[in-house]
Amino acid sequence: MRILLMGPPGAGKGTQAVVVAEILSIAHISTGDIFRANVAGATPLGLEAKRFMDSGEYVPDSVTNAMVRDRLSHPDATDGFLLDGYPRTLAQVHELEGMLRSTGTSIDKVVEITIDTDEVITRLVKRAEEQGRSDDTEDVIRRRQEVYAEQTAPLISEYEALGILVRVDGMGSVAEVTARVLSALGV
Fold first, then answer.
1. Is 50 in the active site?
2. Among 71, 109, 144, 180, the one annotated catalytic
3. Quick one: which of 68, 107, 121, 162 is 20 to 30 A from 137 by CA?
4. Is 155 in a helix, a strand, or coil?
5. CDD domains, alphabetically (predicted)?
6. pLDDT at 108 over 90
7. Catalytic pick from 36, 123, 127, 167?
8. Cα separation of 9 and 43, whole Å?
9. Is the peptide bond before 154 cis (omega within 30 degrees of 0)?
10. Are 165 and 152 in contact (CB under 8 A)?
11. Active-site residue, 133 included
């Protein structure tokens, strides 16, 4: 199964992605993790990505696409994956379609986790305090929400038109949301 998990930053995508990918025995591919690994390793792509991440902007498509293309080529993604944090723009949607078409595959389902913006901000501020993440100041969090609304929300319409979008309420315990996601996937 090839799944995209979407929703605003802080909606619980990362938490759900880990749990759902484990239950389905597919690779969890998080662009946030890919970015942080490249930043920590001070790779050229990582240094470029860091400039954008620190200001709350999206990393340019060229950098993001290169990182994702590389990750999808790993053997653990051959039989299925759950993408968390990608695609975020219409250009990335088309790039991903091209990547998958070249392997004779496509996305099976897109799960949109919905949540209240104020709840998202509260979650991210708490996470920043717990994890010491410099990229999670309140101003940066608010900017990420704006960028999500401007650039990512239109993707929802694209996937809805393809008939592969399902919406899941992200409010509640991790177990409650996981049950909703699995039900939406028909598992």
1. no
2. 144
3. 68
4. helix
5. ADK
6. yes
7. 127
8. 24
9. no
10. no
11. yes
- Among 164, 141, 114, 151, smallest CA distance to 6 is for 114
Catalytic residue among 2, 13, 109, 180: 13
DSSP class of residue 149?
I
Active site residue 109: no
Q: Which of 3-7, 95-99, 114-118, 174-178 has the least mean pLDDT?
A: 114-118
Q: Smallest Cα–Cα separation from 128: which of 112, 149, 116, 144?
A: 144
CATH of the domain at 89: 3.40.50.300
Residue ranges making up the domain that contains 105 = 2-181
Using CA atoms, how far apart are residues 175 and 182, in angstroms rounded to an integer? 10
| Catalytic residue (one of 2, 50, 71, 88) | 88
C-alpha 107/C-alpha 128 separation (Å) is 32
Q: Is residue 72 part of a domain?
A: yes
Known catalytic residue at 167 = no
Domains of the chain: total: 1
Active-site residue, 126 included: no
Mean pLDDT of 46-73: 85
- pTM, entire model: 0.80
